[in-house]
Each structure stands twice: as structure tokens, then as C-alpha cells.
Amino acid sequence: MTVKINTKFIQEFVETNELAALEDFVAASHKKIHDKTGAGAEYLGWLDWPSKMEEAELSRLEEAAEKVKSDTDVLIVIGIGGSYLGTKAVQDLLLPAFGAGGTEVIFAGHNISGRYLEELLSHIEGKKVALNVISKSGTTTEPAIAFRILRKWMVDAYGEEAANRIIVTTDEKEGALRKAADKAGYTSFVIPGDIGGRYSVLTSVGLLPLAVAGVDIRSLLEGAALAESTLANPALMENDAYLYAAYRQILNSRGYSVEVMASFEPAMAGINEWWKQLFGESEGKQGKGVFPASVIYSTDLHSMGQYLQDGRRMLFETMVSFTEDQNQTEIPFDEEDGDGLNYLVEKSLHEVNQTAMEATALAHAEGGVPILSLEVPKLDAQHAGYLLYFFMKACAMSAYLSGVNPFDQPGVEQYKQNMFELLGKPGYEK
Ligand SMILES: O=P(O)(O)OC[C@H]1O[C@](O)(CO)[C@@H](O)[C@@H]1O
């Protein structure tokens, strides 16, 4: 049960000796990660988190989730960036696309749209609602605004009972949210100080709402723990996360500066968004970094396919596929065969989809797009946990290989500063 790189389509673009040339650099960066000596090392808490998360905390989290499930129709997760993308990603990946049932988990505070919030408020009217407000810093404007509005809604709806329906996930000691939780007596969970937002999906940040949504969070952690041990191997050629990181850097140095994450599984859409934040915020600094983009095929072959095949050549693609057929849907035989599809009747949709992937990879490689292929055996909670950890480990390695700190995001501050000035926040006047 691992995520493997298939090098079939990349061999013609990257030679083995180019990889070999990176071996020492990878070994040195591995040391930086594991000995915690690189830039931002104080944020490496995620590295052994899957194996070290305490049973008591996990049980407390499951209890809180059970309580929410027992008396709530809709849980609203309020958060932005790493405080919600991981939950959305795993939820999209593992839960049925239609009518998942149980407590519905929806999101707020990841935008400032009045329309979105009004629609959300009308959706929850008459329903039993709980809030999980998540912010590591406790000071991010978008979730703070949403929390203020939704907290008022909760107090109007439930009076003093509202406090029993609000769960706070934030820093152990600092920030406005921690103060609010302590003052109002909300149930609260801690985001470990040494784990940054975009690396936090496997902490209470993701686990609580995912447990409410019906995801098997123990299997998720199990998969991540397996990745933790498997990907602790320092040898580049034996560590697929490091291979993925090394290929990215080699391609980037050759001018392939945009990575398109492509999957033939629509459930991957959320993972794509989570991955974009992970790599974008980790690597996009000092004028460096591969720009992370994403598509879902075959849908997007009919919109972006032309560009991928034939547009400006600065792209490489990473195709994620699930290799096992877990569905068995076949195309039925039709007497008249008016649509000419009878030649497919012996094949499952999985086979047709895999063939579409192969055909696309062949075409794009021929069109000059280097293709990395990541193979995941199955689409389930364990493999999802493995995949999440795989990307986090690869991201840390990739950022160190490109010479940047994987764990800070100084550039995000600029827009906030401007917004505060323009809105006239006290202390920020020009
Ligand atoms: O959890 P917080 O502190 O509200 O931060 C939310 C997001 O905002 C950022 O700090 C900047 O966009 C991200 O790194 C983070 O995931």
C-alpha cells in the first residue's frame, strides 16, 4: 500500500544520471528534515505526527465528533487555507459525490462573499447546526468575520446553548480564538505550535470535521503512519516522494515552471486544491517555485486539452491514478448499437478511463509535456492518508532542493496589510 512513481513517460525527458547527480543534495536535505536543522525546522511537527498522535487526544476528538453527529444536521467548518482545504480534500475524495447522508459538513470563512454567506444562512434555516471554527493564528480576517456572523446566528437560535454547539480549533495559548474559547467555555482542540496550517490536515484541524463527515480517521492516520516510515528512507532512488521532488526540480531548472496536477478521478478535485496551497505557499518565494495548477480529466481534456497538447511549452504534468478497479461498472450491450459503443461492452469503465489516461499521456508526451505518473493502488482512507503524507514529505524536500524555507509564507502578508489600510483598521491608517 504505497504511492509509486511510474517513470514510463518521464524517461525520455529526464535521464537517470540527472537524478543520480542530485543524490547527495537529496541526502543532505533529508538530513535537514530529519535532524531538524534546515530553515523553518521549528515547523516540522508533522513529520512524525501520524505515529505520535496521542490516543487520548484521538479519543477525545472522536467523542466530540460523535456528539456533533448525534444532534446536528449541519456542521459548519469556518476556516481558510490549511484550516479547511485538507478537510474538503479528504471529504471530496472519500465520501459519495451524491447524498453522502449523516451530518453534512460545509465550509465558511474561506471567502468574504456576502452572497455565499447569505445562501449558507438560508441553507441552515430550520436545521440543527454546530460550528467548528479553525484558525491557527486565531486572527485571520475571513474566518473571523464569518465566525462573528455565524456566532450571532447561533446565539439567536440557541441562546446560551449555543456555546455547547461551538468547537474551537486553534493555538494552545495564543490568539483571539483561544481567548474566546476560554472565556465562553467552548470545547476546544489544539493545533500543535510546530505544525503550520498547510501541514495540519492530520491533526484535529482535519480529523474532527472528517470524523463528523463519516471518514474513518483511524485508517487515514494509519495510512499516513505507513508513509511516515516508508518515506523516512534517505535514499533518493528508493524514496518515491523524494523522486517526485527531484523530478520537479530538474524539470523546473529546464524551464518547465508550471506543474499541472491531473487526475482522471473527479473525487481528486479537493486534493488538487489542497496540494496547490501546500506547494504554492511552500515554494513560491524569492522569485522561485513551480506554479501549481490542476485539471480533472477527461472533463478538462475538453477545455484545457488543447493548451496542454499544443500551447506554450512550460508545462509538465503529474498524473495521479488509482490502479485498482473498485467499481466494476460495465458498458451494456445494445442490439442496435446506434452509438457504435458495442466494441466496449467487455470493458469496465475503469479500463476505459485508464486507457484514456494512457492515451492522454502518450499524446501530451509527444506534444512535449513531461509526464510524471503517481500510482495509488486504491481509493480509500488508508491510501488517502498515505497520499497526503507523501505530498507533505515531497514538498519539504522539493522546497529545500530549491533553496527556500518550506514552512513560512511571508508573501501572504502584503494583501492583508493593504486591505487593513484601505478599510481603515485602527493602527493601519496610512
Ligand atoms: O489558520 P489560520 O491562522 O487562520 O491561517 C489560515 C491560512 O492563512 C495563511 O496563513 C496564509 O494564507 C495560510 O498559511 C493558512 O493556512
Automatic annotation (TrEMBL):
Protein origin, superkingdom: Bacteria
Gene Ontology CC entries for this record: cytosol
Record's catalysed reaction(s): alpha-D-glucose 6-phosphate = beta-D-fructose 6-phosphate
Active-site residue list: 281, 416
Location(s), subcellular: Cytoplasm
InterPro entries the UniProt entry points to: G6P_Isomerase, SIS_dom_sf, SIS_PGI_1, SIS_PGI_2
Listed GO biological process terms: gluconeogenesis; glucose 6-phosphate metabolic process; glycolytic process
Keyword tags: Cytoplasm, Gluconeogenesis, Glycolysis, Isomerase
Pathway: Carbohydrate degradation; glycolysis; D-glyceraldehyde 3-phosphate and glycerone phosphate from D-glucose: step 2/4; Carbohydrate biosynthesis; gluconeogenesis
Pfam family, one: PGI
Annotated GO MF terms: carbohydrate derivative binding; glucose-6-phosphate isomerase activity; monosaccharide binding
Enzyme Commission number(s): 5.3.1.9
Family: Belongs to the GPI family.
Function: Catalyzes the reversible isomerization of glucose-6-phosphate to fructose-6-phosphate.
Protein name stated in the entry: Glucose-6-phosphate isomerase
